[in-house]
Every structure is written in structure tokens, then in C-alpha cells.
Amino acid sequence: GDASRSIRSMLLLSVIVFGIGLHQLFRAAAAPLAPPTPDDIAQAVKIIATSPNTTANLALTGDKYLLFNRDRDAFIMYGRIGNSLIALGDPVGRRQSYASLIWLFRELADQYRCQLAFYQASTECLPLYIDAGFQFVRLGEEAFVPLADFTLEGGRYRTLRQTMARGTRDGLTFAIEPVAAVPAVEPVLRAISDSWLQQKETREKGFSLGFYRKDYIEHFPVAIVRQGETVVAFANLWASADKIELSVDLMRHNQQAPGSTMDFLFGNLLQWGKEQGYRYFNLGMAPLAGFQTHRLAPLWNKVGAYIYTRGERLYNFQGVHAFKEKYHPEWRPRYLAYNGQSSLLILLQIALLIAGGWKGLLRK
Known about the structure:
The chain is 39% helix and 24% strand. The chain is α+β, with helices and mostly antiparallel strands. Strands 1, 2, 3, 4, 5, 6, 7, 8, 9, 10, 11 and 12 form a twelve-stranded mixed beta sheet that branches. α5 (158-169) packs across α8 (261-275). The longest helix is centred in the first third of the chain and has 22 residues, at 5-26. It is elongated, with a radius of gyration of 24 Å. The termini are far apart.
């Protein structure tokens, strides 16, 4: 009691710090994250079948962890790198379960002392992320082609119509192979995939991109382009519940495919999707597209717009956007929702997850 106030305060602070140290010392170590079991994959397949979003199918690649809610009617797919848990897209499944699942993800991160992020978050779920304390930066825009308006007649798709006619003259034909027929053609598809990787001088990516694996490819129907009797290109198809979306994942051709092949494939897919009653064809995201360049815009928007216009040596940003724009899509923004650290660091970690590490990131 006779000690000065400063000494008594230091004693109290020392006791608090010592207590925190003891708590951290004896805190039970979290068990290693477990990859999904066959039962988890089977449950994910059931949930994906009810999802309106085709990107939910990336849960089946096998390179991500799955976090189910307690009722197992919704899940989050995520990867871990360093001290970060990074979810791909919004939660999948019963929408009423999303809020509690996001908080369950935060609890998991706290258990492993990790930071959190949702990569390619949609505007529909932004209120849930805001309630959970996340911040946001814009990543780009995702392209959706309204199939009810798609037609090869008239001037809007004249260039595509001409390219498809050239493909027909080159002897190309289009077909959809159902899931049951895919195992019979799988060796041919693998040979095309290997040829495509060799031609591009690259290797498989992951996380937010599908990659060739036999059990993954055989989950889906496959669109095939033949020249005569020879298969020269393919794309595996993603279809959402209630025919809201149709999309493709891997799109690969061999070195013998004519230059018109991929447009021939896309044009026929759009026609087929319309005939089957799908509402939209999802062309995927154009990174860094749609950024505001106003002088009062946030710094990230200015940096993103600069990279988009000046960064063609790093990545064909404008070329990707131009390729999708020729199909006259609706553009929808996508975001990075992050919690607790630099968005630039998170984006670097995501790039490493996709590339499979520094070696994959620095090579072509």
C-alpha cells in the first residue's frame, strides 16, 4: 500500500501478462486440418446439386478443405497457406445456414490462430460478411451471358457466326458426352490435356481453377469437338440447380486443332445451353475489370486500374475481358472479403495457392 501508483500498476500489468503467457503455454494445440473424407465428398455432391452457382463444383477437385455446418446442409471450401485460411467463393448450400457457417469459419480460424478471407465473394453475401467484421476490395467482374437473348441471327454475333462457319468448313463437329460415356473417352481427353500443357509451356494450376484428374473429369458431362473422327478439343461442363447457370471448367485442345476450334466450341455450347433451357452461361471472371479511376476513388481501385491498362506483360487482363465481352455478357462484381491483415498479402497468398507455390508463380 505504501508503494507508488506506478509500481503497483506495473505489478498488475506483470500479473496479467504472466497469466496470458500461461494460457498460451497450456492452450491445447489444434489438430491438423483433415482433408475431406469420401463421406464428406458424397455430402458435398448432394449439396452442390442444389446450388445455383456452378463454381461450387470446384469443391470436388480434392485440393481444398471442406467445412460443413452442424446440420451438414451447407459448406465452405477453403485452403490454408501460412497463417491464413482462404475460402473460395461464398458458402454453398442452404442459404439460411450461411451466417452461422461464416461465424463457424471464424471460430475455426481462431482455433488455428489464422487470418480469414473469402476470395471472389459476391454482392449477395456482402451483408453477411459485413456483420462478421470483414473488409473488402474489388477483384474484377464475372461475365454472365443471358441465353434467352442469344442468337446467331442478325449482326450482334456476326463474327462468331462466321467463325463457326469456318469451323464447319474445317471439318469440325460438336457433341455432348454424358457422364456415363466419359470413362470411355477419358484416355483421349488426357492426351489432349497433356498436349495443351506442353503447348502452353505451363503446368496445372489449382484452388480457384480446375485441373485434370481422372476422377474429377468423370464427375461431369464433356463437350467434345472432333475433326473428322479425331477428338481435337474438349471442355467439362458445370451445370447448376434449376438450370440457372451453365459453365465450363477445363477448355483444352491439341496442337492439331484449327484456329477456329475454341470459338466453334463456345458458340455451340451457348446454343446447346439455350436449347436445354439454361438462363445464363457463366464465362468466369475478368480480373481487375470495372475499376473506378476517379481521382477520389480508393487507392486499390487506382492501382488495379493501372495494372489492368499497363500490366499486359504480366497477364493478358484486357485480352481476357475482350474475349468475354464479345459474347455481350452481364458483368457482376466480385470481391475479396478479408479480416485482420493486408489485402495485398492475402492476394499474394491466393496467387501462391493457385500456382502451387513460388515455383509455379514465378514460372510461365
